[in-house]
Amino acid sequence: MKLIKLGLASLVVSSALFAGNYNIDNSHTNVGFTVKHMMITNVSGNFNEFTGNFEYDEKTNTLKSLNGEIAVSSINTANEKRDAHLKADDIFDAEKFPKITFKSTKIENDAIYGDFTMKGVTKNIKLDLDNGGIMGDKAGFALSGKIKRSDFGITWNKVLETGGVAVSDEVKLVIDVQGKLAK
Fold first, then answer.
1. Which residues have C-beta within 8 Å of that of residue 120, sequence separation ≥ 6?
2. Region 149-153 average pLDDT
3. Predicted pLDDT at 140
4. 21-50 pLDDT, tens digit each
5. What is the pLDDT of residue 11?
6. pLDDT tens across 119-128, in order?
């Protein structure tokens, strides 16, 4: 019986030795989004300030967990007037809700599920996972998916004379992550 317990303990310890904790490298990571504007073009943007970490199993070359936090006030769509409006209380309300967060709850195959919190509302979302792999003390991957901004209480819009709306409800998320092994 002691031999079985010792064997199980060594298995747990040895598998943990291959899983590394990584801190997100802001200079090699992009947290971006795209939304349809006036029903004819896409407007892209990103967030310039974010933090996070993830666990990556070097032995199996798989992502095990991910946690991230985004500063809403760092939104950048290459248009200062639009960025100011996005931060205002009728859209993100950055003063009252300064952070967007993501905490993984399950990772399987090419998908990651997690609790996504924006404007005080938390929903479990699914993102497609493109595993980039590991090289030395760095690991990386890409995430993509869609959310409905109305699910998070972001409902501002304008009806156009042509019958469409100024901004679509669907937002495409495009996130490229590179992390460095924490020491």
1. 96, 97, 153
2. 88
3. 96
4. 999 999 999 999 887 665 667 888 999 999
5. 42
6. 999 999 999 9
Backbone angles phi, psi at 76, to 5 degrees: -145, 115
**Domain ranges (residues) in the chain:** 19-181
The domain covering 19-181 belongs, at the CATH homologous superfamily level, to Lipid/polyisoprenoid-binding, YceI-like (2.40.128.110)
104 vs 54: CA distance, rounded Å: 9
Output the 3-class SS for 132-166.
EEEECCEEEEEEEEEEEHHHHCCCCCCECCCCCEC
Q: Decide: 54 and 66 in contact? Cβ < 8 Å.
A: yes
Contact 151, 118 (CB under 8 A): no
- The residues near 105 (Cβ < 8 Å, ≥ 6 apart) are 113, 114, 115, 124
d(CA 83, CA 78): 8
The DSSP 8-state label assigned to residue 96 in this structure reads T
Token reading at 136: 């030395």
**Residue 84 three-state SS:** helix
Question: In this structure, how many other beta carbons lie within 10 angstroms of the beta carbon of residue 1?
Answer: 5
